[in-house]
Amino acid sequence: MFCRQLLEYLLQKLEYESLLPDKTIPLLMSAAEEINIVREKFLDGNQLERYSLARVLILVCYNQPSEFVSTISYFLQYSRDDQTLALLVRIVSGTITMHTPNDSPDINADTERYQNFIKTGVEYALRDAMLSDTTIKRYFVEGTSTSEHKTYLHYLCLNLITLLRWENSTRVVQLRSRWVSRAVEAAAGRAAAALCERAALVRVRAPCTPAQLDQMHTCHALAEVLDRIDMSGTKSPPPSVEVILKVVQATVKYFFRCLHEKDIMDKLRGVQTACRLLRKLCIHSKLARAVALRDLLETAMFREEKVFGSRSTVANAITAGKDWTNEDLLIHLNQRHGPMTQLTQSHTSVFHAGVIGSAGRHNSDNSAPVSPALSHHTELLMGALMACMDGDTGIAEGATSVSLLLVELVSPDVMYNGLPWPDEDFTKQVSIERELYMRGAVERSAVCRAWLWRAASARPALCVASALLRAAAATLLHRLRAHLDRHTNSAEMARERAALTELLSTMTLGQLLPHPLCHMLELAPELSASELVQVLRDCLWNYTRDHVPSPALFTGDSSGIHWRDPSTCKPPATYTDTLRLIIQKKISTLGHLYPIMFLNLEQDAA
């Protein structure tokens, strides 16, 4: 008891002497010289030693700001429990309080000065932790490391998360000035760069260093640190454009890295964190929204397409080179013969289905159905895209932006990407190869098909993707005409019917086909190939050619919901007579649809 009282008296005397100007205290000078030994005692000393050393360290930091910065960096890197972090809070708050007493005439200047010291300490901690992860460690060489060992950057992030959690709880008085959040916000660019590097699937993993450990735990911790700070500028100055772009790009990489997680709960937690980050960034910045949407869509289509069940990579300028086989070369495609895509009144012989002497081309295994896990990945991607669109007008603008971007990425050039539909003969004589390419690109990409369905429900976003719908309709017309009725039961015809069903479903959901044209989806399974050609040409193609699918056709309200008024978009008889005649011809099987489709039209006409 006497020793404790003596120690307390000495510490109080030391604190009093430190306040005197130009006073040199040998004990503090010695502690500053042996600062490494003093700090190490915080990790393995008892409670009395740590408490006493904290008071000594406050005085050292009070006299030497450089030691204040290095102390913050050391504690953030090597603290392994909450008690040590609590001592860090005490040291920081004690040092600031000694420099900025309540009656100080320049309290704001001193507070801002020490806030800059704290920012520097956090930046040093990030830098040193990243360097430590590239240093060879003895326990890796000796093979004594455990599977639970974490990287130094991971420990640093865990300590920052704990401090941020204490700060957000508002229970710790010493943290109410938000000095932790402000310091981490200043280092957000460096943290985003670290996340971007570690979220990459292919990266340098030096042997015998922490870099060879599993990096996903570190990625999760870095993402949580970024998620806990304010990036909107409401509580502190908004981040710079450079920092916003770095965080967006790192978040997108982290999102796709989470999709490779084997544990479903870790995957979902990581995806939710990424979506929260994207939502917070995009709701206040249109630049962040544009960059995030483009990065998400480009990565999903061209770099991570296998995660979503896409059957092959769409050839594009941003993709790597591909080893083409003879079956993919145009010079060999020109030698094919068969019923597929023999364009009427055309001399082209491209895109046939067989080779003379080799029978028909074998179907690829890529036509296998997509597994539920890959479909789940597609839904997660759609959720991430929608997270970027939250806000007052975010969904309408964002969905339109994604649809425009999809057309840009899929189409091989910038020609004929407008909203109007040309004459059918134009596609047959000018742009059929382009339409075939675009349809194949969409069919191979599960992301494209999923987004077209999502855009149909986010009206009028589907209108700006008119070029993709036009490509599908044009190729269906020519392929169905080439089949005629001789190949009605073939596998190719079954695929064409499935593609037709998908096209009609999407256009109907997007309200591009008014009543009664929207009922073509119910008629299609009962029609022959020649009848399908008539319906597609006379009803779907001619109507969309004369009535351009435009966002101007849709009206919206204050909630951002858009729709097309059925009373103002009734199609003339020119576009419905073909449907009427076909139903009358097959009245025994399709008669139940006649009153649904035409009864109201006849009453209105009367």
UniProtKB/TrEMBL annotation:
Q: Per the UniProt entry, what are the Gene Ontology biological process annotations, in alphabetical order? A: snRNA 3'-end processing
InterPro entries the UniProt entry points to: INTS5, INTS5_C
Q: Indicate what this protein is called per its UniProt record.
A: Integrator complex subunit 5 C-terminal domain-containing protein
Residues of the Integrator complex subunit 5 C-terminal domain:
3-590
Question: What cellular component GO annotations does this protein have?
Answer: integrator complex
Q: What is the lineage of its organism?
A: Eukaryota, Metazoa, Ecdysozoa, Arthropoda, Hexapoda
One Pfam family from the record: INTS5_C
Source domain of life is Eukaryota
Chain ranges passing through the membrane: none
